[in-house]
Amino acid sequence: LTLQDIKFVWLGWPQAQVPLAEYELIWIQNIDMDEDAMILRGLCIETEAIQLMQCATILLKVCSQRGWSLYQMGRLMTRQGAAPSTFQCLVEEASNDHGVDMEVLMDRLRMCDPPD
Fold this sequence. Notes:
Elements: H1 22-29, H2 33-42, H3 47-65, H4 70-77, H5 86-93, E1 95-96, E2 99-100, H6 102-111
Antiparallel strand pairs: 1-2
Helix pairs in contact: 2-3, 3-6
């Protein structure tokens, strides 16, 4: 799975550092990434793009459940200089010949400290 360098302009917005509200956390936990993947397959979206959506959804679910802000999640996904992002490293650790092992990715994210 290839992850490109991304930049989130909203990382500089003050509201990105505000804790998520309870209704937002409930909405996030109710995201059905398997159903979303099925819809995307029906639209002929590439498998790699679908896997990236699943990885990002797992990051959103696990990190929001742990109380992270959107700022912290965005920082985890953003490269600092030329080095790969922490998220990219976690995805690579969870990858095998068949793609990304989502259970391994969830475990890695549960052990990860939030960025400053």
